[in-house]
Every structure is written in structure tokens, then in C-alpha cells.
Amino acid sequence: MPKIEIKNVYKIFGSNPETVLPIVKEGASKEDVLERTGHTVGLDNVSINIEEGETFVCMGLSGSGKSTLIRHLNRLIDPTDGDIIVDGTNVMELNEKQLIEFRKHEMSMVFQRFGLFPHKTVLENVGYGLEIQGKEPEERKKLAMIQVESVGLQGFENQYPSQLSGGMQQRVGLARALATNPQILLMDEAFSALDPLIRSDMQNQLIELQAKLKKTIVFITHDLDESLRLGDHIGILNGGRLVQAGTPEEIIMSPADDYVEAFVKDVNRAKVLRAKTVMIKANEFNSSDLKLADVYKVDEGSYIEQFLPKVLADRCTVMVVDKMGDTKGYITEKELAISLSKDGYNLK
Amino acid sequence: MKKISKNIIYLIYLILFGVLIVVSYNSSKRKPDSVSELYTDFTWLINWPKWLDTPFMHWINTGWRSFIADYGLIFDAIGYGLLRGYTELKNIIVQAPWPVVILGVIGITYVISGRKLGTTIFVGFCTFFIGFLNPRFWDKAIETTTMVVIGIAICVVIGIPIGIAMSRSERVRNIILPILDTMQVIPAFCYLIPGIILFGLGAIPAIISIFIYACPPLIRLTDLGIRLVDKEIIEAAESFGASKKQKLWGVQIPLALPNIMQGINQCTMMALAMVVIASMIGTRGLGDEVLLGLQQLNVGAALEAGLAIVLLAIVLDRMTQAYGEKIQERTQPQKKKN
């Protein structure tokens, strides 16, 4: 069972969403609805399943409804129609009291402009969720300090947020979200406000943390490189509709429509595609005339960019092996050429 | 749905208007002998007809009379309570030796300004100068200050909760805003005189007038301050499961505090202005001195008293301002120091 199940969610903004809902359900476009009723369609029949422990990246340009979607998960925004099931609980059916309990324990959120409390110190900010849970100050301080250390901000715990740089502030935001030890982490364009170097730093830190913590992360971004780097699965939104959902490889190799294609056009494929995606399976490959000296072993999970220079320099053939060392397949120059070119290749 | 309810509101307006016209026509003493005269003689279209006059004054007077008869006692009780508080507080300060009062002001300023020496010295100097202008002013300034302080206390106790309620509900906002506009625009004498009827002459109607005149900016700035708190910060608090109460006390009020302090500062200044006007209904204090000087055509005396009011205003302004700045520093610390 998926950890988070989003089922046929509609969100319509305006004075009277219920009357507009049937029109949207009939399939009228966003522009159409706006012209006819003055209502804005935020989400249009979005259904997503998110598995436990994965990072799901939701991508789209501004106005595509991605920030609206993530706010539905903890009901900062109420949907017009549809169900959201987290861990078997239908979030839509919670009353106010239950919702508050749900927010306290199930998930926490990281914000684009950090959303830190300017009148609280770093330590108080990190301990905020614990404070709301009603933990004693001593315990709160202890737990918060562990998180402050885990994001490498020790020594700054008594500073105020405005005394820190953007990257440091977002690390406070991350620590604050982790402090309550939620199973689900919502990250709303968490790194978009940071400059490129720090952003890539933060991405690494998140990947490292995730390897240890194995949270279920829902990450919103408008940056394709970021989504390819972080996401186990990616969902692409356009105008409130989910146009494609899949693994990074699927998105790159077989874009569902022109919109997605335009998105992935300039991606560095060598950085995204893995050996196991582009290889020819061992039983389909004639390995008899292969000289052992020309073979270069790589793990099936490695990216093309990791072995491409070696192949170019030594003109060798790549043998793809799994964790146990068994041969899974082969990659020759031909496969590399096909997979790196923009057109003429389809995932089998 | 929405359209229908809007149409109903328009219809109610129309009916109300019709009823008012009929009522005013019927109650008018100068209506024409018969309605048919209106169809034959159209001069009533040129000048405003005498019979088209809502008996508003009449209604208010009747209402006012029965209001006093029914609820006069309550106001007597409120007036008595306020008067006791006012007299006690005033007597304590008046009876204290003046150097002690000045030292007290200096001490308070030093603490609430966050140990700013410049402000403290300046405030102390201004306080000293009030008595220095004219020995008679000292006790009068204390009377005025006591009235202002009690007035502001009432404004804070009533105004800030109203401001909070406004920031939370669009409906409350729509109801309160026109009332605030009325309170700010209506000429002071319109409520000073009824104040005398309700509370008698002296300090109490002045304090009530201070509330009516000086409270609106505090309410507005409280409302504004809370609504201006960054939406993402509110969302952050909500996403951690903060209840409405936790959100209000833990996030919204602390972040709105600089604005609320600005409101209290505005409230103070307007209260001082009102105290002077209130002297015309027999309120003692520095305003009384201004009035006395003007009545005797003694420009020097009037100006001297006016100057004392300015000094008092400076003292109160600097004190509230300094406290506001201190709070601002606490909630929004300066950028990283190099």
C-alpha cells in the first residue's frame, strides 16, 4: 500500500467552486473555466501514489499547481473534491482537532522562503514543533540540539535567523522539520531561493540525510536538474493537470507530450541515465568475440557520465554487473551513442 | 446563490428607503394638505421639500432619554469606579516630592528604552522643564498625564482584542471599520456633551472621550500588524499543528508587536490632544491653563501652557517610541554584524 495516496483531487479557486466543479470534471480547460466562470482551476483530477521511503518530486512551472498540491497533503488548503489518504487515514475526513494532531506527528514542512520565526533563536525555531507537541523545555532543547548538530549549525544555536545566510537559514528550516521525527517531509521549493552553489550543497546534504533516515519526501521544484537528482519518482504538472509521472529515466526517454519534451530537451543525459537502463541484456548480446582485456566492469546503478570517459579513452566495452557481481548486460559504443542522442530512442 | 442573496440585500435597501420616506412624510408637520397636491404643484422638485425630513433628531432624543433612564445607573457605577482609580493614582503622584517623580520618570525610561542614555537624559530634562516653566504646571501636568494613562489603558484593554478579532474575521472587520471611521470623524463635542450627562463634569468624560478619539488608530494598527505577518511564517506554524491560540500568542502577536506599539504611541499623542479639548467641559489639567490664558487674552500664559503640553507630549512619545524600538530589535534583530 502506498504511503500517500492522492485520489482524483480537484481544487478550484473562486467564490463558488462547487458549481464550477462539474464543468471542470467534464474536461474544460483552465482558460475556458476562467473565461466562463471567473474561477481558477488549481488542480484538475490529480492522482498520485507515493511509496514509503521514496523521494517524490513534483515538478512544474509557476502556476502549474505544484505548491497548491503539496499544501493539500497537510490540508493547509482544502481540496474542492477528492481524497488524500496518508497511511490509511483519509485526511479529508479529519475534524479540526484530529487535523492538528495529524499535523503534529505525521508530517512536517520546509518552505521556499524558509518560514522561520524571526523572534526566536535557531534553537527555539528548531524546537518549535516539539513545543507545539507539548514537550518539556529540557527535552525540547536536547532534541533540538541534536538536529542543529545534524545539519552542521552547532555554534549558531543562539543566533536569530536574520543573522544567518540563506543556506544556513534553510538548514534551520530542515532541522526544524526533522526535529519532530515525522515520517513524511514536505518540501515546497525548499532550495529555490538559494544560490546555485549552496543549492547543490543542500541537495547533497538532503541526499545524505535521506540515505540515513529513509523518510518519505515530497519535494516541489521548478528545476528539472534538481528533480532528476533528488527524485525516485517525478510527477510533472501543467496547468493543474498531472501530465506524466514516472522514474527520471522514463521521463527523459519517453516524454508524454510536447510540454514534457520541452522540459527535458536540454538535460545532460549522461548525468541521469544509468547503466542498467541503456545496456543490452546479457542473453541478447553476443559476447563470444569479446576480449577480456577490453572489458570494463561497472555497477548497474552507475550513471553514464561515470564510465563514459573510460570508454572513450580505452575503446573498451562495458560489462554491467549487479551488487553480487553477476553479469547483467553489456554496453557498447553503439548503445551509448543511441542513449545520449535526443531522438530515435525509446525505452523498451 | 450569491447573486440571489445580493439581490435580496438591494431589495431590503429599497424597502427601507420607501418606509423612511413614508414615515418622514407622515410625521412631518409641514406636509401639504393632501397628497394630490404633489401631482399638481411641482415646486417641491426644486427646493428640498419641507416634508421630506427623517425625524432622526426626534428618534435620537427619545432613545437617549429612555437610555439614560434605563442604564444611567450602570454609567454612574463605571464613572464612580474610574473616578476612584483616577483620584487615587493622581494623589499618589501629586503627593510625592517632585524630584522623586522626575527620578521615577528617568528610571522608567532607562529601563524600557533598553538602557539608552541619550533618550533617558532628554526625557528627564523635558520632565524637569514642565515644572520649570511655571510651578503651577507641575500638579496640572500630573493630572493630565494620569487621565492620558488611564485613557490609554482602557484603549489597550479594549482596542487590542478588537484589532485581533478584526484581523481574524472579514465579517468583524466589515462591521468595525465604519464604526472606527465614525469615531474618528465625528466632532469631539458631539460626544463630550453627552459624556457630561452620563458621567458628570470632570476627568471621567475626558477619559471616555480619549477612548473614542484615540482608540481607532490602535485598533487599525493592531489589525494591520497581525495581517501583515508573513503568510509563510503562519503556514509554518500551522504545518506543525499549532492551534489558533498558539498561533496568535506564539507567532502573530510577537511579530505584530512593533505595529501595535506604534498604535499605542499614536494613541498617546491623540489622547493628549483630546485632553486639551476636554478642558472646555471643565476638565482640569494643562488644557485648563491654556483655556484660562485665552479667556483672559493673556497670550503669554496660553503659550506657556501650550509649551508645557508639548513637553509632556515629547516625554510620553519618547518613552513609548523607545519601548517600541526595543521590541523591534528583539523581534527583528539587525543583520549580521561584521
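The CA atoms of residues 2 and 8 of chain B lie 10 Å apart.
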